[in-house]
């Protein structure tokens, strides 16, 4: 079991290059990666995403990549040839219009500083690309390890709560038999109170009605389904694949059955237990939202 909350940081440095990478992850319904990195890394973005997918299947993942070093800034002199042509045309026009003599020399042209400009070209070579990927792998593994560690704590908590629900369901099952008898007795007592002049001991039809009323308050089917859900929950918790969505669905089903029991039961003790169990199920649901 893995949490979707994690953080990992890794750095690389040599004489010409320094790489710093941070990976932050939080819970999310799907796999969602956001990169904050230099533009010249965009061509390898898909490759970087695959590195992350090897360790993480779900979560909102933010990756920050910082690169500094001489390799990233290569200065290159650029000439604006269109502007040079305009200068030449205008100078020749001056010569013709004003009958000027002399050559248009390179010394003259070079004085027009706006025709030259220096660009800093950012690029990445194969060696640097490999180092970025290696550094990212290490950062992702650290974040993944944190997710695993937190997942183990979540697993302990969820396992304990599932056992609590299971134990309480057993107690509800034992109490159910007593409740049915008490429910039947209360119904008969009320009938006898209001129909004192009519004997009910030999009226089979009346007893059938009493049995039907008691059946409406029977929670045995709901208890059986909850027991089955809890057993399935305990099995899935031990799986290595992403299980968050499966567990979320099972807890929803447990909650549905608990609500049904709460609406059917007229027993104060059972109602009290249902309140506790719904609280446990709600806490489980909150925890599951952060499971991959």
UniProtKB/TrEMBL annotation:
It is an enzyme of class 3 (hydrolase). The keyword Hydrolase applies. Keywords: Hydrolase. The keyword Hydrolase applies. It comes from the Bacteria. Its EC number is 3.1.-.-. This is YicC/YloC family endoribonuclease. It comes from Gracilibacillus pellucidus.
């Amino acid at each position: 079991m893995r949490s979707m909350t994690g953080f990992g940081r890794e750095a690389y440095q040599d004489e010409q290059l320094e790489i710093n990478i941070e990976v932050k992850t939080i819970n999310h319904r799907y796999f969602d990666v956001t990169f904050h990195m230099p533009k010249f890394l965009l061509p390898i973005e898909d490759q970087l995403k695959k590195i992350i997918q090897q360790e993480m299947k779900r979560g909102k993942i933010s990756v920050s990549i910082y690169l500094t070093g001489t390799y990233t800034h290569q200065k290159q002199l650029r000439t604006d040839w269109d502007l040079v042509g305009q200068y030449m045309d205008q100078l020749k026009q001056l010569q013709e219009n004003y009958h000027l003599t002399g050559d248009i020399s390179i010394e003259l042209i070079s004085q027009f500083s706006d025709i030259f400009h220096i660009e800093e070209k950012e690029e990445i070579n194969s060696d640097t690309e490999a180092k970025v990927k290696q550094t990212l792998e290490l950062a992702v593994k650290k974040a993944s390890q944190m997710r695993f560690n937190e997942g183990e704590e979540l697993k302990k908590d969820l396992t304990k709560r599932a056992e609590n629900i299971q134990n309480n369901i057993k107690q509800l099952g034992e109490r159910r038999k007593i409740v049915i008898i008490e429910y039947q007795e209360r119904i008969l007592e009320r009938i006898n109170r209001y129909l004192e002049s009519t004997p009910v001991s030999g009226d089979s039809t009346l007893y059938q009605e009493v049995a039907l009323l008691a059946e409406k308050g029977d929670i045995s089917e709901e208890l059986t389904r909850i027991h089955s859900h809890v057993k399935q929950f305990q099995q899935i918790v031990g799986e290595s694949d992403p299980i968050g969505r499966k567990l979320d669905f099972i807890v929803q089903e447990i909650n549905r059955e608990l609500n049904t029991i709460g609406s059917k039961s007229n027993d104060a003790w059972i109602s009290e237990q249902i309140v506790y169990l719904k609280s446990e199920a709600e806490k489980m649901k909150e925890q599951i939202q952060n499971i991959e």
